[in-house]
Amino acid sequence: MDQARAYSAASATSPLQPDTIQRRATTDTDVQIEILFCGVCHSDLHTVRNDWASFMPTVYPVVPGHEIVGRVTAVGPAVTRYAPGDLVGVGCLVDSDHTCAACQADREQFCPGGVFTYNSPDRHLGGVTYGGYSESIVVDERFVLRVPKNLDLAGVAPLLCAGITTYSPLRHWKVEAGQKVGVVGLGGLGHMGVKFARAFGAHVVVFTTSPAKAEDALRLGAHEVVDSRDPDAMAAHAGTFNFILDTVSAQHDLNAYLNLLTLDGNLTLVGAPNEPLPVASFALLFGRRSLSGSLIGGIAETQEMLDFCGEHGITADVEVIPIQQINEAYERMLRSDVKYRFSIDMASLRAG
Predict the structure, then answer these.
(1) Does residue 131 share a domain with residue 11?
(2) 22 has a pLDDT exceeding 90
(3) Please, what is the Cα angle at 192 between 188 and 195, to 5 degrees?
(4) Residues 285, 287, 293, 294: is their CA dihedral positive or negative?
(5) What is the CATH number of the domain that holds 97?
(6) pLDDT confidence of 350, banded at 50, 70, 90?
(7) CA-CA distance, 334 to 323, in Å (whole number)?
(8) What helix, strand, coil percent values describe the chain, rounded to 5?
(9) How many domains does the chain divide into?
(10) What is the extent of the structural domain holding 189?
(11) Same domain, yes or no, for 98 and 195?
(12) Residue 82 half-sphere exposure toward CB, CA atoms < 13 A
């Protein structure tokens, strides 16, 4: 085993602070990675504060981080895909059972035996897995991703969660040129949804309760911006959307957006409000509309997403911070005071 510097939280009310954790020795199929950047996801904050205790309780100490970009430093003797020096990424998953129907279909995110990058049972060392707020990580090569060399690495990191979370449903529902696509919310997820939908050739409309975000939405690639609190503005788009991506994690009216869908249109949720959202059956029945959810993506699809980003020059809009500012970053996330993702420069951890 090797020791690695990291930032961890000791309880739901504790700040993240310097720690030393154990990383396993590299096995035959493992890739050892020096972490260069790690994105900061709302899931990190929820896990640290044990907000999901009812279905995914946090085991402390917890080391968050599942938007990881780094450089390979060593590989096991059976590794064939990577070599020392390669730029790679690690997302929300670091293992699965490899045998279930989901895994066989390259949908490892739905594997009943999936192992998340942090706060998941560690099959090698016992305890739980530790994430990317650390100087290094060891991951099975099947869950390591190749990062395009032409992209800014700080902006690549959030692609490993925010990117695939929005890319996957757009691909699943076959968004393409000539379609009309809505994006509800313009945060860490929403801004990626806008970039991808525009790159797919769709006519993109952003829905927001903050008119001040209109200029930025257009800069990111939206064709139109609608104030979702304006009934007339919403009514003007009734029955016209092929697909709407809902990225909002707060309480809001789903029926207002279902009524904007055309025949066989779909509304997909990628935000996760804590409380149930009421849905009127008639909003679905008329027009054969559908409501669905989506969870990150499989490893093959995540690699496809990264390759697509390399071809189209797409990265997340990030504010780069040192690890020493992570607690402040969490507070700012709660105030939506970031455009649009924090990315930790992990050199700051190595510098002390």
Answers:
(1) yes
(2) yes
(3) 150
(4) positive
(5) 3.90.180.10
(6) confident
(7) 18
(8) 30, 30, 45
(9) 2
(10) 163-293
(11) no
(12) 29
Residues 306 and 192 in one domain: no
Q: Are residues 283 and 305 in the same domain?
A: no
Query: Do 184 and 311 lie in a common domain?
Result: no
Q: What is the pTM of this model?
A: 0.96
pLDDT digit string, tens, across residues 103-127: 999 999 999 999 999 999 999 999 9
Identify the CATH number of the domain in which residue 175 sits. Answer: 3.40.50.720
What one-letter code names the amino acid at 281?
Answer: S
176-205, pLDDT tens digit by residue?
999 999 999 999 999 999 999 999 999 999
Q: Residue 92: what residue type?
A: C
The two beta strands, 87-90 and 68-75, are antiparallel
Shared-domain flag, residues 42 and 90: yes
What tokens appear for 143 in the block? 């869950």
How many residues are recorded in the chain? 352
User: End-to-end alpha-carbon separation of the chain, Å?
Assistant: 22
220 with 114, same domain? no
Cis-peptide, bond into residue 61, ω within 30° of zero = yes
Print the SS3 string covering the chain.
CEEEEEEEECCCCCCCEEEEEEECCCCCCEEEEEEEEEEECHHHHHHHCCCCCCCCCCCCCECCCCCEEEEEEEECCCCCCCCCCCEEEECCEEECCCCCHHHHCCCHHHCCCCEECCCCECCCCCCECCCCCECEEEEEHHHCEECCCCCCHHHHHHHHCHHHHHHHHHHHCCCCCCCEEEEECCCHHHHHHHHHHHHCCCEEEEEECCHHHHHHHHHHCCCEEEECCCHHHHHCCCCCEEEEEECCCCCCCHHHHHCCEEEEEEEEECCCCCCCCCCCHHHHHCCCCEEEECCCCCHHHHHHHHHHHHHHCCCCCEEEEEHHHHHHHHHHHHCCCCCCEEEEECHHHHCC
- DSSP β-bridge partners for residue 30: 140
For residue 31, which amino acid is it? V
Residues 25 and 145 in one domain: yes
- Can you read off the two tokens belonging to residue 259? 């009524």
